[in-house]
Design a protein that fits this description.
Layout (H helix, E strand, L loop, with lengths): L5 H9 L3 H23 L8 H11 L6 H13 L9 H23 L1
Amino acid sequence: MQTTTRAWIHQMVDQLPGQEMEHLRTYLEFLTWRAKQQKAAPQPTGKNVMAQRIIKAMEQPPYVTHEDIEELLRVIKEGKQPTRFESPFEQAVYSQRLNARMDNDSEILDW
């Protein structure tokens, strides 16, 4: 088993053609950037494990199948209630006005 040393790495890099050297430099810059991003990301402190799990779950994309979507739409459709457009408050006011008119009409008829 060969142990890789810095001298061997430098020797191999020096033998690379110019374009491959540029690709290697770009790749190493990317790895350096990614390592800094991972260090900057908040690490779980253990103080609030549940909050850390929620944050982690929110960062991941949802994995929803077509069947899940169809089932959700079916359940929503089954649970729909009929929409009533009349207001119970307006009905009470209308009833009071109607009763008041009927009382007034009976007074007029009694006269």
